[in-house]
Amino acid sequence: MSLVNDPRWTEVDRYVEDTLVGRDEALEASLAAAVDAGLPTISVTPAQGKLLFVLAKSMGATRILELGTLAGYSAIWLARALGPAGRLITLEIDPHHADVARRNFARAGVADRIDLRVGSAHDTLADLAARSVAPFDLIFIDADKVSYAAYFAAVLPLSRPGTLILADNVIRKGAVADTGSTDANVIGARRFHEAVAREPRVSATAIQTVGAKGYDGFSVITVLE
User: Fold this and answer.
1) Phi-psi region of 61 (alpha: psi -120 to 50; beta: other; left: phi over 0)
2) How many whole angstroms separate alpha carbon 66 and alpha carbon 58?
3) What's the pLDDT tens digit per position in 72-117?
4) Which of 24, 140, 142, 191 is deepest in the core (most CB within 10 A)?
């Protein structure tokens, strides 16, 4: 089977963006700023960003945790869903990425509701747990794939019954089904799903997606207890 992107995937994404997502100067500027700063072009698509917004908005989220800020594109979507009284904590290991994200947050008018923490997510998550912070309503994992299983274990104590945990880039162009893969990201995605499957306090599924970013997918997890 060929894994070359079908041009229709991008055409449909463009249709969805034009019809349902709409143009947004602040979001478009954040993507342009990322390119100008030399950041990798791996942000979620506009349609996926709108999905994050819709999910957060529909559950009335007031506290969100994001792992992997990059230039802040997805964080802007999530922060807008929170409203002025909400709080988003987003974790980024690269100071340069964080600087770009801060400027993007300010331009989008959401800096007042975002707490961007720079450093190892493992360390920051341990610190949040040690401080017994209030649980998060939604947790979005979009950082290094090798660490997904560890991230899942670390965010579970920061959740509550009903918390929604989303994990991006877990299908890996279908390679997640390859038991013999030696790709570290594929192995990370498989270990993550195995860890989720063993955890009785959650219920989960994974969805394959196609679009402007190609063939991938995300996991959707709800905390039961």
Assistant:
1) beta
2) 18
3) 999 999 999 998 889 999 999 999 999 999 999 999 999 999 999 9
4) 140
Using CA atoms, how far apart are residues 193 and 170, in angstroms rounded to an integer?
9
CATH classification at residue 75: 3.40.50.150
* CA distance linking residue 189 with residue 219, whole number of Å: 10
Identify how many contiguous H helices and E strands the chain contains and give both numbers.
8, 7
Answer whether residue 2 is part of any domain: no
Q: Is residue 1 one of the residues assigned to a domain?
A: no
* Nearest-angstrom CA–CA distance, 59 and 194: 27
E strands, the chain, are 63-67, 87-92, 114-118, 138-141, 164-168, 202-211, 214-223
Alpha-carbon distance of 177 to 14, in angstroms, equals 29
Distance, CA of 210 to CA of 217 (rounded, Å): 8
Number of independent structural domains in the chain: 1
2 pLDDT more than 60:
no
- What are residue 40's phi and psi, to 5 degrees? -65, 145
Q: Which residues of 192-214 are buried (b: 16+ CB within 10 A; e: fewer)?
A: bbebbeebeebebebeebbbbbe
Question: Pairing mode, if any, of strands 138-141 and 87-92?
Answer: unpaired
